[in-house]
Amino acid sequence: MEQQPAPHNDTARPQQPVLFLPHGGGPCFFMDWPDTWDHMAAYLRAVAATLPRRPDGIVVMSSHWETGVPTVTSGAHPALIYDYSGFPPHTYQLRYPAAGSPELAAQVCALLDKVGIPNAQDPDRGFDHGVFIPFMLAFPQADIPIVELSLQRDLNAAMEIRIGAALQPLRAQNVLIVGTGMTYHNLHHFMGQNPQSNAVSREFDTWLTHAVESPPDIRTEALTRWTHAPGARICHPRPEHLLPLMFAAGAAGTDRGVRDYSDTVMGKALSGFRFG
Fold first, then answer.
1. Which of 199, 223, 239, 247 has the greatest CB tally within 10 Å of its CB?
2. Whose CA is closest to 147, among 183, 180, 106, 186?
3. C-alpha span between 16 and 7 (Å, rounded)
4. Among the ranges given (188-192, 225-229, 258-262), the one the predictor scored with the smallest mean pLDDT
5. Is beta strand 268-275 parallel, antiparallel or unpaired with respect to 257-265?
6. For the chain, what is the total number of helices (H) and then of strands (E)?
7. How far apart (Å, rounded) are the C-alpha atoms in residues 190 and 184?
8. Does 70 have pLDDT greater than 50?
9. Mean per-residue pLDDT for 39-44?
């Protein structure tokens, strides 16, 4: 695929919003799983039409890559990482040939340098399923260059907000910033369809929506202290699937957030959010 030009500044046009997208369970959208993921799939398919224009690039943080310092994919043609197991053979043949962007990766690192956040580039890392699975629906033509940014191993919400804030200037350069994860991710309860946590998931989802839709300063404080929310540790025994939302909220700056997707999957409340 031909390398796309580097993102450019265009102040005459609106900047891109910031998105937090649910990525489902493994390759769920490409399997015979009747009625379970249909609403989420429809939401993802509608994403591109909600943007002010086609992005020149995408910076995405997935819940499936953790490193010691923020690290960006910097290869021109990243491969796919099929980091799921136990699924049908055809799900390991899925293709998403989006280009990378060494230029955009360098911009990400420069912005992190500017605020004193140590960072690194990885020219060999591919796109994990937290990127290519939802993007196969949201951006099916695979014609927008993508840079993936890692989570930090210490899984610190305040740091992910700070990292997102550092990258906010990219939005004015027609770069779309995306976090992908899940607002509920207790696999033991999810796959076991434990009904006792259904109400807990709804309570946490209500708190999370209120936090995201609050004024930015209140939003930042609430998301930083997310472990104090009702049912927080039941819904997220480990927070890697929630923290890309904090990254997105940081990149939103002073833009207000809104829940633009709400669903119940296997009894658990799930949401998606948009800023700007």
1. 247
2. 106
3. 12
4. 188-192
5. antiparallel
6. 9, 8
7. 9
8. yes
9. 98
